Amino acid sequence: xxxxxxxxxxxxxxxxxxxxxxxxxxxxxxxxxxxxxxxxxxxxxxxxxxxxxxxxxxxxxxxxxxxxxxxxxxxxxxxxxxxxxxxxxxxxxxxxxxxxxxxxxxxxxxxxxxxxxxxxxxxxxxxxxxxxxxxxxxxxxxxxxxxxxxxxxxxxxxxxxxxxxxxxxxxxxxxxxxxxxxxxxxxxxxxxxxxxxxxxxxxxxxxxxxxxxxxxxxxxxxxxxxxxxxxxxxxxxxxxxxxxxxxxxxxxxxxxxxxxxxxxxxxxxxxxxxxxxxxxxxxxxxxxxxxxxxxxxxxxxxxxxxxxxxxxxxxxxxxxxxxxxxxxxxxxxxxxxxxxxxxxxxxxxxxxxxxxxxxxxxxxxxxxxxxxxxxxxxxxxxxxxxxxxxxx
Amino acid sequence: xxxxxxxxxxxxxxxxxxxxxxxxxxxxxxxxxxxxxxxxxxxxxxxxxxxxxxxxxxxxxxxxxxxxxxxxxxxxxxxxxxxxxxxxxxxxxxxxxxxxxxxxxxxxxxxxxxxxxxxxxxxxxxxxxxxxxxxxxxxxxxxxxxxxxxxxxxxxxxxxxxxxxxxxxxxxxxxxxxxxxxxxxxxxxxxxxxxxxxxxxxxxxxxxxxxxxxxxxxxxxxxxxxxxxxxxxxxxxxxxxxxxxxxxxxxxxxxxxxxxxxxxxxxxxxxxxxxxxxxxxxxxxxxxxxxxxxxxxxxxxxxxxxxxxxxxxxxxxxxxxxxxxxxxxxxxxxxxxxx
Lengths: 392, 339
Hints:
Chain A has helices spanning 2-10, 17-49, 80-113, 118-132, 136-150, 180-210, 216-234, 259-285, 289-297, 302-332, 344-355, 358-387, and strands at residues 158-161, 164-167, 170-173, 175-176, 241-242, 245-247, 250-252, 255-257. Chain A is of the alpha+beta class. In chain A, strand 6 (245-247) and strand 7 (250-252) form a beta hairpin. Chain B is an alpha/beta fold. Chain B folds into two domains: 23-124 and 225-329, Periplasmic binding protein-like II (D-Maltodextrin-Binding Protein, domain 2, 3-Layer(aba) Sandwich), CATH 3.40.190; 127-222, Periplasmic binding protein-like II (D-Maltodextrin-Binding Protein, domain 2). Chain B starts with a helix and ends in a 29-residue tail after the last helix. At the A-B interface, helix 2, helix 5 and helix 11 of A face helix 1, helix 4, helix 6, strand 10 and helix 7 of B.
């Protein structure tokens, strides 16, 4: 025993692979660290030599430029930090709505692609090939041109429904006038969600115990719709609407969805959904046909087969590549600069130009997109783990 | 073996980085590589745009050619790099171009915090508004609530926000990076007005489907002295660019043009003799050939020729000299003596 220990100790460290590996790793780390330090210090010296301002102090200065659309109150008198926040929120808005619509449309087309109906499956295939193969930038410019070229000026706006106007400045429609009732309606809706969550849990336990199914879907829908509706009636059923009206150049009041936002959303969704459709199709096809046949022979209805047997298995295959498509959509949303949607990159561009601090600006852009991506993939990894095969 | 490769790679990377940080003066670098790299607009009629034969045309382009003529005695030793408003200063700072002749406005923050240096102004401009005639607007004060098409990365964005704010008016900007796309959106009616430097608006108007459908509003809301820019800290190169622009102006004042420059060599006027290098001194002081001004005028012309050829009354832009006339004719173009 002691002799082995002695031999071990007597091996010089450069002949011991495991200790040698540590030395190599430390050396590599040192080189990487040195290069990073060199790049950083070199940049700083060069910036100083050219007397370019450095640091993030510019964030507190007045931005003094306007932003086309904003989810929060913003004016040219606000700071660069707030202008950038407006951009970040705009990016989140388009990415979030885009991801939701993409998943819905992609799943729909992916399932249609597998339909036994010849026309439906061919149309889905044509859609996928068409939108997958055209660069997204071209699609964005195309949709934007469609909006501003084909729609009339505000004075001759189309009115598809009373109080809803469509023109080359966007789609303007009425929204309910602010009223305390809507706060309670939102609370009621959240309470409804909570109820449905517990209802579902209880129904599952009961089914496991007694074998009796409970109509969760219809009861759940009734709760989700009913709670807010009842609250709305209780608080006096306010019906006042804030309608858009033409004043001067544009519609004021109500809510306006800009052509830039719509074109960006449409381009991103149609493009990404084509990829998602393929992922969904391959995920479903990866589940062996025997599973469907077994489910059918047990007497499950087609939607039950899809819902209870096929989808839970195929989701495990779908989710990882789906995550990367979601990230793609978020990153592609930066093409907004081409069609004038004030996303984060667009606002950051203007900031960089007015302040001249390109390095800080680009660093901010990278950090923000990194955070977007990390949050999205963290969520999807959590979801992936949740639906993963539970091995007993 | 693999590891050794890694070390070699790391060493090479470090050496390359170290080499990159050492640099001689810009003028020596340019002479060594044999051509001047000039950042230009690329999409702006009259200032920097290739014509249908692919040949670069414009006032800024000719300014770049004058610099090449001054350095090499050959206006063709030049490479044009089209840059968007957003890219331009970064391209200059990073050394991608040697000089920026791209309708850039001199403002304090660019001259200081952005690490630039501006040469003599080659066009005095101001920001205005272009609106469709059928809107029946007579003044920019009537633009409250308007949607405004504007290029990003320019002083324009800030000027127009300032103007609307100081007049208690509201605006909605539509910001598109590509000049051509922006113009298209405006002509299609996406915006109520297009705002930019009046020279740019004239350029945009000249490419409209029907130019007479659009009119300028009388308000000029800013001063836009447009000038070539170089990196801060290289005084020799700045001198070269500066005196090249001044040479164009001085030649006009002295009555020297590309047509009579050869005769002028025989002139007995001491100012002309010094200017054209017949009496030496100026070239050496700048680090150039003694006949650099002769080369500029012979190959590019004087300021009047450059102006008339690119933006003057006979061009689609049809701009008057205005502020850009010589100081002797009521304008702002004024050159110190070449001595």
